[in-house]
Amino acid sequence: MRRRAKVDWNDATCKRQGWSVRYANAGASVRSIHYPRELAQLLGPCWIARTDAPAPASDPRLNHAVLVVKTVIQRGLAPPIHPASEIAFLKVAKVDYRGPGPANGSLAVEADRGRRISSDDAISLLRDRAQDSVRIASSLYLDLDSDAERLALETISRVAPGVVPWIIPQGPLGSIAGAAGLTGGLGERVDFVVAVPGEEPRVVEIDGVQHDKLTSSDEARDALLAAAGYQLTMRVPVSKLNQGADDVLSALEPEPVKQPNSALDPLVWGPTQTHRLVMAILDGVVAGFVSGGSWHIEVVDPTALSFRGIRPYLDLLAAADVIAGTETGLAPETIFLSVGDKTARFVRSGRQGYSHAETSHRTAEPDFTVHLECFATPVADLPPQTATPQIVVRTTGVPAPLNSERFTGQLPPDIAGNDDSADAAWALTTLLQSVFAKEEFREGQLEAIREVLAGRDCMVLLPTGAGKSIIYQLATMCRPGCAVIVDPLVALMDDQVDVMRDHGIERVESLSSQLNPDEVRLALDRVQSGEQLFLLVTPERFRSERFRHNILAMSSQTPVSVAVVDEAHCVSEWGHDFRAAYLDLGRTIRNVCRGVTNSPPPILALTGTASRSVLMDVLHQLEISIEDEKTVIKPSSFDRKEISLSVATCAPGQTKAALAGVIRAMPSKLGQTPATFFSLRDSQTASGLVFCATKTGWDWSTAAAHDVLSSVVDAPTARYSGGLGAAGKQVAKSFKTNQTLVLATTSAYGMGIDKPNIRWIVHNGLPGSIEAYYQQVGRAARDGEPSQCVLLLTEFSRSRNDQLMQEDDLDIVKIWFETLTGAKDNITTALFFHLQSFVGAQAEQAAVLELVNLLDPSDTDDERVIPIPRNDAEVAAQDRALLRLKTLGLISDIVRSGNQLKVRLNGSAPALVVDSLVRHVDRSQPGQADAVRERMSRPYDKLDDAIEACAGELIRFIYATVERSRRRSLREMLLAARAAADGADLRKRVLEYLTEGDVGVALESLLDSRHKSHDPWIKFWDKTVTANDARELRSASGRLLESYPNDPFLRTSRALGELLIEEGDVLEAERDVQGAIQAARAEYGLVKQTVDGLLEYLIRRSTQHQREVVVLSAISMAEDMDDTWQALDAMIEAPTSSAGWSTLRLRRELNEALRNTDAIANHLHEVGT
Predict the structure, then answer these.
(1) pTM of the entire structure?
(2) Cβ contact 677:1031 at 8 Å
(3) pLDDT one-digit tens code per residue, 463-488
């Protein structure tokens, strides 16, 4: 039967005089033992009848607190119960268990693997007891449409008694169709739905004489029912019924079930009854049945199990009370629970949780009574009305997944749980334990959640495996509405859906490119209904016109609680290259997700690593302003001690053999035999990843790596990369469920994927940066167990690769690359892909000018419609051009409609275009803004002239910063790998690079101050005394150079760090000195005095370590040193034995001789003329 969509359900059983009745979800399961899905579908939905209340509660904060608890209970069809309650039921069931586990502060336990939960046993017991106890409510007969229907019900009761409890009179046809993803039947009803557990549902229609004229209508209804999976629709004419339809209706009698096990399974009925009791208590609160500081609730439970699991949920009530700020509205000082003649007293400690004070004989009348009638169904009679209000909860066979109780309206003005009090921390920790079975928060999680609950934007940088996803997931439990999560990869979206489902969170929608149009339509309908708690999308989805309309429709009733940008470094690192939709994201989110309050949701940006420029760019693009120190949350350390890092090297042609050797050595590194290590053992499997640079074509491709794996590993292996669609999804699933031992993968598996038991990782190639490397090795050891990561570096020639990456002019690099001799290696492969992203300044400028001709911008706002190219390369070029014009302030928005783009233009003028350019430069590279402003200072008569000039300057700037930064990042990774191969500690090098530290903070402060004088820098460098100081200076400067690749002060700083340590790379220091000299005047406009001061300082400090030759050699190689030589004259003339000074003297004398020769030649030329 098709079950695809959740629906609202209302039938004749909801009409009970004196009672308020509804269907709801209140299912529950356990984590430690597999819970059958068919059992969740049966026991998840329930039927709740409550004595009518004259004035239900209307306090917004109380309603908010109730919603928090309901969200926990209804986050899925049958989510895992609180881990403490689960342990209680495992004890009742006498099941052996281990735990709580030691890994990552988990409260979850592992049960005996031999224990199973049987849906057949539960269904048999339910059907047996329901049939024994059912007596159809007399009021139901009155609510039927006709005497014929009443006669039919009487007949069924007589000839098919086994089906009676499972009859649903006046079933909603629209809901039946909607559950199957179909439209139609709205407002119509079928006479009877028969939904016996364990059997396919059927429909019984009683046809009066009027149906003789409605043949086509009946046929249409039958066709709709058949399409919905109801193949056994039974039509009984009234004439037949009056004559006796026993022979027809007796066919409804279900097949007999096996003799039920008389013993209740506590692992089935305990969780179910506990969640149903919680829902009943919430109903009693909302109805106003309880008030004040003391509640007395009577519980009638035929299983006697709910009491054993309820205490942790009383703490949950108290936590919701604190989060919503209801001042004991949901959690009084004392709660009395009576079961039979016993009463338990629970006493609250201040604003926190409850303790079980005592159990005594019942002495007082209850405020209300809860009947947990798990073996009764909606058609049965309700208890007689009494002076004490009552709530009845029953099992229902409703054959459709039900919508949860959704939040509609406005968010509360503030959420009390956002403060930094001990009570708020306890409340949020209680929620963490209830949903995620984690004992306590990790570093940074609680602080970030508080920011979101306060409605403030936040950027979170936490190490891989630090639980960043829990931040938005738990915040959404507290902040009503739907969270929208933007992910860069489909694999990451799929993984997050899987991880949430592991915690029972099923109200999740994922809109990926792998959905067909019908699936997209249904998904958007579910989003618009407000049923979902989480919506995962790619950034491109926000450019879709239809998606924007759906979000606007949803947020008009159900607010967007928080907008999450996961792997937020992609906003900067990918947005400027090939996914321009990232750069529209911040403004689009704020415009589209405003809702009825016209206030945008808080934006939460999450990443594991980000350089300073990436961080600042992400904040700018997402329009996150740094209000205080809490806006950006960083860890105290990025260290993952459980991960061991090392490097192996080989020459081209030896890669496959070296890779095989690295893989064969893994078992011994982790203390296992190869037979055990390379075998599938469920969660104990030592899973592995081999990261490769490309899919095919080289020895460091996934194809080559998979060949090696197949020859070494006697277990299932597979290849994985982006763009594989459904096949790739199946590969990822097989790996995650431990049916595949190891993947040869591209970086597509390198972000955010959560698989606990990855024990080893090999990099068959060089990652593009230390940040990327850290992200990818972070896939290992998510469960805290030891893991091994080996980087296999294939390098042909260090000197050749140094030349390729140090040259500033990309056009020269291209020429060298095209005429490359010698074998290809990891670095040339990385550069190959780099050159695909950066096609060249001239080509980009031509594409921009072509787009300008097409858009024809003017001084007034306007909109243009342009076609989307069919070729991927042309699409990328168009996106880049659109992005450049957006940077220049000419474009305000880009919306995709079918195969076209609607481009909204800002009215502009030459001066505005120049101002936009300068602002962009000032934000990215503050030291260069003045020089750019001066170069663009001439007046422009025409807008097109200003656009052409500014676009050219912008593209040159991007190539001088972003392009060089990418090569700089690659070089830092290469230097770290080389150093590790030569015996250095790779972990230490990586952590020095990633950790900001005091030196990094000081350098950032100097950059922010925008000093163009060398004096403050020299004062700071004077504090670099020890070798450790110098190492920290080198690492911090190197990381910041990824953000500011040409900054002369940073290049001087990094050179100094290399020169002051014994193992420093003197060639790298020389290149940095050369780069500092070249950029100081040309790009940063530094005055002569500042350049002289930098060089004099470097010479003096390097002389103390006998390394002045490095600085002097760099000075001698500078293209134009006439001005600087004057400042160095005194030092040059001083007697010294240094070879460096001799070189500099010789260079000076040679330069003077060349000048004299030029002068003589010019004089002779003038005389001859």
Answers:
(1) 0.86
(2) no
(3) 877 789 999 999 999 988 899 999 99
456, amino acid identity: R
Q: How far apart are CA 1039 and CA 1025, in angstroms?
A: 21
Beta bridge partners of 459: 605, 632
Print burial letters for 445-457: b (CB count within 10 Å at least 16), e (below 16). bbebbbbbbbbbb
389 Cβ contact partners less than 8 Å away, ≥ 6 residues apart: 50, 51, 53, 284, 287, 289, 367, 368, 369
Alpha-carbon 1156 to chain mean position: 67
E-only strand ranges, 122-267: 167-172, 189-194, 202-207, 234-237
> Residue 660 is inside which H or E element, if any?
helix 655-669
Distance of alpha carbon 455 from alpha carbon 418, whole angstroms: 9
> Which has the closest alpha carbon to 757: 735, 729, 773, 774?
735
Query: What's the CA gap between 970 and 616, in Å, rounded?
Result: 20
Q: Are 678 and 1034 in contact (CB under 8 A)?
A: no
From residue 94, alpha-carbon distances to 44, 115, 262, 407, 983 in Å are 25, 10, 17, 40, 55
Q: CA torsion 520→522→523→524, rounded to 10°?
A: 80
First vs last Cα of the chain: how many Å apart? 101
Burial 265-304 (b: 16+ CB within 10 A, else e): bbbbbbbbbbbbbbbbbbbbbbbebbeeeebbbbbbbbbb
> Which amino acid belongs to residue 979?
A
Alpha helices in 479-540 (DSSP H): 490-502, 517-529
Reduced to 3 states, what is the DSSP secondary structure of residue 811? helix
Q: Once rounded to an integer, what is the mean pLDDT over residues 1072-1098? A: 84
What average pLDDT does the segment 990-1012 reach?
A: 81
Report the alpha-carbon distance of residue 939 to residue 913 in Å, rounded.
12
- Sign of CA pseudo-dihedral 818, 820, 824, 830: negative
CA dihedral 852, 853, 855, 858 (to 10 degrees): 80
How crowded is residue 116: how many other Cβ atoms within 10 Å of its Cβ? 13
Q: Which residue has the higher pLDDT, 751 or 340?
A: 340
Number of Cβ atoms within 10 Å of the Cβ of 150: 17
Q: With beta carbons less than 8 A apart as the criterion, state whether 1075 and 1068 touch.
A: no
Least-confidence region, from 293-302, 491-500, 723-732, 1026-1035: 723-732
Under DSSP, is residue 555 helix (H, G, I), strand (E, B) or coil? helix
pLDDT at residue 1123 greater than cutoff 70: no
Beta bridge partners of 720: 745
Parallel/antiparallel/unpaired status of strands 234-237 and 202-207: parallel
Contact (CB, 8 A) for 415 and 474: no
**CA–CA gap between residue 1086 and residue 1049 (Å, rounded):** 10
Contact 51, 19 (CB under 8 A): yes
User: Dihedral (C-alpha) 968, 970, 975, 980: value to the nearest 10 degrees?
Assistant: 150
Residue type, 103: A
Residues 6+ apart with CB under 8 A from 291: none
Phi, psi of 1166 (to 5 degrees): -65, -40
**Residue 1151 DSSP SS3:** helix
Q: What is the mean pLDDT of the chain?
A: 86
Q: How many residues does the chain have?
A: 1169
Distances in Å between the alpha carbon of 198 and those of 232, 256, 269, 605, 623?
A: 15, 11, 18, 46, 54
pLDDT tens string 702-733: 999 999 999 999 899 999 887 777 788 888 88
Q: Look up tokens 């949350």; give the residue.
A: 633
Question: 391 with 369: CB under 8 angstroms?
Answer: yes
Residues 6+ apart with CB under 8 A from 94: none
List, in sequence order, every beta strand (DSSP E) within 143-237: 167-172, 189-194, 202-207, 234-237
Name the helix (H) or strand (E) containing 324: helix 311-324
**What's phi and psi for 368, nearest 5 deg?**
-160, 160
- DSSP designation for 404: P
